Amino acid sequence: MNRIWNSVVGKLWITILLLVSFVLFIVTVLLLEFLGNYHSETVEEALNSEANMIANIFNEHDEVETSLEVIKDVLGPETNAVIAEEPYENSYYIHDGLNGDDTREKILNEPSFQKVFETSETVMKEMLLPSLTEENRLESYIVLANPLKTSEEQHGVVFIYQSLEVMDRTAERTTNIVFLSAFIALVLTTFFAFFLSSRITSPLRKIREGAFELAKGNFDTKVTASSSDEIGQLATAFNQMGRQLKHHVEVINQEKEQLSSILTSMADIVITFNQDRTILLSNPPAEKLLQQWIFKNGSSEAQPLPSEMLHMLDHVLDFEEEIEEELEIEGAYYAINFSPLYSGASIRGAVAVLHNMTEQHRLEKLREDFIANVSHELRTPIAMLQGYSEAILDDVGATEEERREMTKIIYEESQRMGRLVTDLLNLARMESGHMRLYKEIVQLNTAIERMTLKFSQIAKENDIQLLFETEIDDWAACDMDEDRIEQVMTNLIDNAIRHTPKGGQVVVRVENQEEYAKISINDNGVGISEKDLEFVFERFYKADKARTLGKGGTGLGLAIASNIIQAHEGKIYAESRMGQGTSFVFLLPLKKM
Q1: 588 - beta bridge partners?
Q2: Which domain of life is it from (predicted)?
């Protein structure tokens, strides 16, 4: 029921019903009033006419019986008459019904009728008289008193009376007819209201259902335009709106996807801020960086942005100026560009673009260090070559043996320069990806033990105990370039022997670590300081003088070893404690048998 009241059909039906009911009510009241007045006037005219005729008949005929017969024919239905020749005296009467005596007595004794006996005036009065059909019940009558002879001073009077029940029955029949008409009008109005409303609301209901589908994102929804009126035009407009919405949404999605693809593929960090300094949008590199900052702050509730960026953001939002700076944040270098975002004439936020310059700074530092180290490494042999060459040219050597010694030094320094250049070329070739590996399946224990035993004699000469230990099965194998791995082992064992004091110990150990073989070269020398440990695999980096014990190399061996292990999809690292020794460890993937 509530659904009907809230629908267009229900509202239209109620409106039409109220309108028809109001019109019928007004018409009924006016019609009853009109019929009542019309009936009263008709009755008065009829009674006057009949009274005049009765008076004329009675005056013209001498025989009373004949006059009464004529008068009965003249009187209308339900109309009675009383003829009084003298006041208060009943001479003749015509009464069809009960209570005739009481009725005549009340009429004759009515004071307002007495003047008719003396004047020519006609008097009409509505009175309560006994009923013609029931005992002890009064009814409303209309009574007309009309004089018989007007020439004499006192004359008779004809009283004609008629019950008003006729008028009431007429009004009742009229009211019933009106109510019947109202009921028929109500039924017809309801039928036509629902018929008309269904023709209106049915397409509107379809448009409503289509609108709900459109709100769900089904932009292919169509509404059938079954007419050419306003509702049909509305359906056509709805279909056009759906097509336009689908087109605009597709364009927006394409632009959104393009923007998302651009942001996702950008290596730079992009962060968009609202006016209230909250982060609105960020690309994957930005999210990764923010997570790192949150992790470093130790709480997810903390503000992830560093104070330097917050100051820049405040400046951009307050002064609407673009800022470009290069800052060091959390040990990394960033080129930061802050730009305001506008919505119309007002600023609605800011966008920050961060370019990580850490690698550029590191490469620049490596370049500077490389140039400095190469210059330093080449300066000594070049100076010695130049000095001894000049000495030989100037015949500084007094004896043949001294000149031979100078020539030997020149030869050794030239070999040293050759090794340095060879190492530089090898390292450059490895880092550029041009290193070629000749891999084959090699039994690990056999290969590592053979590479270790090569240094047995050198270890004895330096009074150092060289040991080989293994915890893996003899059948364990790796897919590797044996020559390159031997180059790594040679460099690491040679370093361990050279930096271990006499009486020390160097242990080569092979272990199993999940899917990798762990090879470690451990010595009990003086160790490497913690600040130097993270740089040992950099080019030309050397530990402090206390560790080298005056036995420096080119500084490229560990860098070459790191590149070889990485080319084998392994890992290499160093562990050390000052005064307790050093362990160089590299991992090689084991071959699955």
Answers
A1: 517
A2: Bacteria
Residues in CB range of 135: below 8 A, 6 or more apart: 98, 99
- Ordered strands of the 269-274 beta sheet: 279-282, 269-274, 346-356, 332-343, 323-329
Give the separation between CA 101 and CA 107, rounded to whole angstroms.
10
- Which among 174, 158, 153 has a CA at the least distance from the CA of 53? 158
- Helices and strands, number each (H, E), in the chain: 16, 17
Q: Give the Cα separation of 477 and 497 in Å (integer).
A: 27
Q: Give the number of residues written for the chain.
A: 593
DSSP-derived secondary structure for 182-241: HHHHHHHHHHHHHHHHHHHHHHHHHHHHHHHHHHTT-TT-------SSHHHHHHHHHHHH
Compute the distance between CA of residue 386 and CA of residue 396 in angstroms, rounded to an integer. 14
> Across the chain, which distance is largest between two alpha carbons, in Å?
207
Burial class (CB in 10 A: 0-12, 13-18, 19+), 40: middle
Q: Which amino acid is at 121?
A: E
Q: What is the C-alpha separation between 221 and 243, in angstroms, rounded? A: 9
Three-state DSSP class for 59? helix
What is the residue-wise DSSP string for 491-528?
A: HHHHHHHHTS-TT-EEEEEEEEETTEEEEEEEE-SS--
- On whether the CB atoms of residues 175 and 24 are closer than 8 A, the answer is no
The encoded tokens of residue 434 equal: 């041009």
Give CA separation, 65 vs 71, 83, 89, in Å: 10, 13, 18
pTM of the model: 0.41
Q: Per-residue pLDDT for the chain (593 aa), expressed as one digit of tens each?
A: 455 556 666 677 777 778 877 887 787 778 777 766 776 677 777 777 777 777 766 666 655 566 666 666 666 666 777 777 777 666 666 677 777 777 777 777 788 777 777 777 778 777 877 777 777 777 777 787 877 765 556 677 777 777 777 667 776 777 787 778 778 877 877 777 667 666 777 777 777 778 888 787 787 787 776 677 777 788 888 888 888 888 888 888 888 888 777 777 777 888 888 888 888 888 888 888 888 777 776 655 555 778 888 888 888 888 888 888 888 887 788 888 998 888 777 888 888 898 888 888 877 876 776 676 667 667 767 777 777 787 777 776 557 777 777 788 788 778 777 767 776 676 666 666 666 778 899 999 999 999 998 888 888 988 999 999 999 888 889 999 888 888 889 889 988 998 888 889 999 999 998 889 999 999 988 888 887 787 788 776 665 444 443 344 566 778 888 888 888 889 999 998 888 889 999 999 988 76
Compute and round to an integer the Cα radius of gyration of the chain.
64
Token pair, residue 264, equals: 């996702």
DSSP H or E segment with residue 301: none
